[in-house]
Design a protein that fits this description.
With 609 residues, this protein is α/β, with parallel strands linked by helices. It folds into two domains: 170 residues, 3-Layer(bba) Sandwich (FAD/NAD(P)-binding domain); 296 residues, FAD/NAD(P)-binding domain (3-Layer(bba) Sandwich). 33% of the residues lie in helices and 15% in strands. It has 19 helices and 21 strands. The strands form six sheets. Strands 2, 3, 4, 5, 6, 18 and 19 form a seven-stranded mixed β-sheet that branches. Helix 2 packs parallel to helix 17 and helix 17 packs parallel to helix 19. The longest helix has 26 residues. It starts with 17 loop residues before the first helix and ends with a strand.
Length: 609
C-alpha cells in the first residue's frame, strides 16, 4: 500500500485522526479491487434475458413495420428525450418521432417501480419544467409514481405522444451519404429515415447482473429490482408486499436501490437476508410534505435559480453574486461543500493545496457523522460495524434514508456481510457466502445498471456513420466529441447524456442544458438549409484535449476510491467509464461555456454543408 502524505494543516482540533481514517479507506479499497473490473458483471441476455422482461405492459403487442421519414428521431423517452422534444417543439419543429423500448414515457422512472423507489435529489430541483407546468411536487423528496406522472405530464403538454413508437428497440443506425439521412432499424422490422437523430438512451435502464457462478441454477423465484415482479410479491410501490409473508427472501446488493426497498422487504418477508459487498453511506433524509406557505413566497424564476444554486454548490463551486451565496437546498448533498467553506473561513490564509486538504477533512468529518449515526441506530454492534462505509463520500452515490438502518433491528432481517468479496456462488436452493448456504425462496438482484461498458453496448445498438465508420470502433478507447454533443464522421447524430460534458448529481439539470444546446443547433441548421452538421476535426480534437486536461485529476480522485461504478470498478484508466470524460471546471462552468458559444451565433467549430 502506498504511503499516504501527511496533512500540512493542523488537525489536532479534530475528534478523529484523519491519517488513520485514510489508511482505513485504502485498506477497504484494496481488499475489494478485482482484476476483472467490470468483467465481474454480465448482461441480461441469453439464459438471463428474462431479467429484461417488461412487467408493466400487456404481452403480445404487435404492429406493422414503418418505412417512412421524419425530420427528427429521438431514441429514448426518459427525461433526456422528453426535454429534447420540448426544446424542439419550442423551436417550432413538429415532425418529431420517439422510439422507446418501454410502454410509456418516463425512462428510469418507468422501469424503477420497486417498493420505496424515490429520488434522492430534492424534488424542487430534480423535477424539470416546474414553472412551465405550474406544478409543485407533493414532498421534498418525491416517490417514483409522482415522478413518472410528471414525465407523462410533460409529454402530454408538449404533444410528444404524437407519432411515438413504444415497445420498440433500435437495433442499428446507419448513415446514407447519398440521401444525407439516417436509417433507423428496429426489432419491429422498421426502417425509418431521419434527417436528425438524438440518442437519449439513458443510463439507469439496462440492468446488469453479477457473474456469480450458478446464477442460472437457482430454482426459486428471481428478478431484478428494475423489473419488480408485483405479481409475485404483492403490494405496490408503497410496500405491503403480502405475497412474501411466508417467503425467505435474499437481496443481493446494498446500493441506492436496496437502501430504499430493503425496509419494505424487511417489513413483509418471513425472513430477509441482505448480501453485502460494500455498504452504502446512508445519511438522514428528513423528507416532509411541501410547505404551502413556502410555495406562496416563491417568485417567478425561482426554479432556475434553485437548480443552478444546487449544481454549483454540490460540485464545490462558489456563487459569484452575494445574493446567490446562500445554500437554497441545504441537504446532505451540499453539506460537505458548506463544511469545507466554513473551514476555509476559519483559516486566515490558505494555499490552493491547503484548500484541497480542507475539503478532504470536511469529507472525513461528514463520513464520521454518517458512521456514528449507524452506531446510534443499529442495535447489534457487529451488524453496525459492517454497515459503516469507509470511503470518501462521493466515491459512491450517497444515500439518504430514515428507515433503512432501523430495518436491521428486526429479528427477521439478517445482514450477510461478505467482507468485500461478494457472494461465492448461487445454488438451486440459495446463496453461498463464507462456505455457508442461505436457503431462500426468492432471490432479488439490486445490482444496478450497465454503466461501465462501451457507449454502444449500453445503447444496445451500433451507429454506422460516413464511409462505414462504426461508433463502437471509433470510441473503443474513449469518446471523441465537440461539447459531448456531436462527433465527426456521424453527421446530424446528437448524443445526450454523460459524455464529455458538465456532470451534476442532478441529472435533469444537465440533460435540460444539453437539450437546449441540441435544439439550438438543429434550429440553426434549418435556418441555413443544412444537409449535414458535424464538428470539424480541429474543433473536436481541441475539445477532447480540454477534457483530457482534467482526466488526471479525476483519475487521481477515483484511484483512492473503493470500487463501484463511479470509479469504474477500479479500472481507473477506463475512458468509457460512467464518470470519466468530465468537463473539469464543473457543470455550471460548462453550461456557461455552451451558452456563450450559442450567443456567438456562428456555430464555431461546426461544419455546415
Amino acid at each position: 500500500m502506498t504511503e499516504l502524505k501527511k496533512y500540512s494543516i493542523d488537525t489536532s482540533n479534530l475528534d478523529f485522526d484523519p491519517d488513520e481514517l485514510r489508511e482505513k479507506y485504502a485498506e477497504e479499497r484494496d481488499k475489494r479491487i478485482r482484476k476483472d473490473g467490470f468483467g465481474q458483471y454480465q448482461q441480461a441476455t441469453g439464459d438471463l434475458a428474462g431479467f429484461m422482461e417488461d412487467h408493466y405492459v400487456e404481452p403480445g403487442f404487435e404492429r406493422e413495420p414503418l418505412t417512412d421519414q421524419v425530420e427528427v428521431l429521438i431514441i429514448g423517452g426518459g427525461f433526456g428525450g422528453l426535454l429534447a422534444g420540448v426544446q424542439l417543439r419550442k423551436a417550432g419543429l413538429n415532425d418529431i418521432r420517439f422510439i422507446e423500448k418501454a410502454g410509456d414515457f418516463g425512462g428510469t422512472w418507468y422501469w424503477n417501480r420497486y417498493p420505496g423507489a424515490q429520488c434522492d435529489v430534492e424534488s424542487f430541483v430534480y423535477f424539470p419544467l416546474l414553472e412551465e407546468l405550474d406544478y409543485i411536487p407533493k414532498e421534498r423528496y418525491s416517490h417514483a409514481p409522482e415522478i413518472l406522472d410528471h414525465a407523462i405530464a410533460i409529454a402530454k403538454k408538449f404533444d410528444l405522444y404524437r407519432d411515438t413508437c413504444f415497445q420498440t428497440e433500435v437495433t442499428e443506425l446507419r448513415w446514407d451519404e447519398e440521401s444525407k439521412l439516417w436509417a433507423i432499424y428496429t426489432d419491429r422490422k422498421d426502417v425509418i429515415k431521419a434527417h436528425y437523430v438524438i440518442m437519449a438512451n439513458g443510463v439507469l435502464t439496462r440492468p446488469k447482473l453479477p457473474g456469480i457462478p450458478g446464477i442460472t441454477s437457482f430454482e426459486g423465484h428471481t428478478f431484478h429490482t428494475s423489473r419488480w415482479d408485483y405479481a409475485y410479491t404483492g403490494g405496490s410501490s408503497e410496500g405491503k408486499l403480502t405475497g412474501l409473508a411466508d417467503k425467505r427472501v435474499g437481496m443481493i446488493g446494498t446500493g441506492a436501490t436496496a437502501v430504499q426497498c430493503v425496509p419494505h422487504l424487511g417489513e413483509s418477508a418471513k425472513q430477509l437476508y441482505v448480501f453485502q459487498r460494500t455498504p452504502s453511506s446512508v445519511d438522514v433524509r428528513n423528507n416532509a410534505p411541501t410547505d404551502p406557505e413556502w410555495v406562496k413566497r416563491l417568485e417567478p424564476g425561482w426554479h432556475k435559480k434553485r437548480v443552478e444554486n444546487f449544481s454549483l454548490l454540490v460540485t464545490g463551486g462558489r456563487p459569484k453574486k452575494a445574493k446567490s451565496a446562500q445554500d437554497q437546498v441545504n441537504d446532505g448533498w451540499t453539506d460537505v461543500a458548506n463544511s469545507a467553506e466554513k473551514m476555509e473561513r476559519e483559516k486566515t490564509k490558505t494555499t490552493p493545496e491547503q484548500k484541497k486538504e480542507l475539503r478532504e477533512l470536511a469529507d472525513l468529518k461528514k463520513m464520521e457523522e454518517i458512521r456514528d449515526r449507524v452506531s446510534s441506530v443499529v442495535e447489534d454492534e457487529a451488524t453496525a460495524e459492517a454497515l459503516k462505509a469507509y470511503y470518501w463520500q462521493f466515491c459512491k452515490r450517497p444515500c439518504f434514508h430514515d428507515e433503512y438502518l432501523e430495518t436491521y433491528n428486526l429479528p427477521t432481517v439478517s445482514l450477510v456481510d461478505t467482507h468485500g468479496q461478494g457472494v461465492e456462488r448461487i445454488t438451486p436452493k440459495g446463496v453461498v457466502v463464507g462456505g455457508r448456504e442461505y436457503e431462500v425462496d426468492c432471490l432479488i438482484f439490486g445490482t444496478g445498471f450497465e454503466l461501465g461498458s462501451s457507449y454502444t453496448t449500453r445503447s444496445g445498438y451500433d451507429v454506422i456513420g460516413r464511409d462505414g465508420a462504426m461508433l463502437s470502433e471509433r470510441w473503443a478507447y474513449r469518446p471523441s466529441t465537440l461539447h459531448g454533443i456531436l462527433s465527426r464522421g456521424f453527421p446530424n447524430c446528437f448524443f445526450l447524456g454523460y459524455i464529455q460534458t458538465g456532470v451534476s448529481p442532478n441529472f435533469t439539470h444537465m440533460l435540460g442544458e444539453q437539450a437546449q444546446h441540441i435544439a439550438y443547433v438543429i434550429e440553426e441548421g434549418h435556418k441555413r438549409a443544412a444537409k449535414t452538421i458535424e464538428p470539424t476535426q480541429e474543433a473536436e480534437d481541441a475539445w477532447v484535449a480540454v477534457i483530457e486536461q482534467s482526466a488526471d485529476a479525476v483519475e487521481r480522485h477515483f484511484a483512492k476510491c473503493t470500487p463501484g461504478y463511479y470509479s469504474n470498478e477500479g479500472e481507473v484508466g477506463n475512458r468509457n467509464g460512467f464518470m470519466n470524460g468530465q468537463f473539469g471546471a464543473g457543470p455550471v462552468s460548462f453550461f456557461e461555456l455552451i451558452a456563450d458559444w450559442r450567443a456567438e451565433g456562428t456555430l464555431r467549430g461546426l461544419e455546415i454543408r
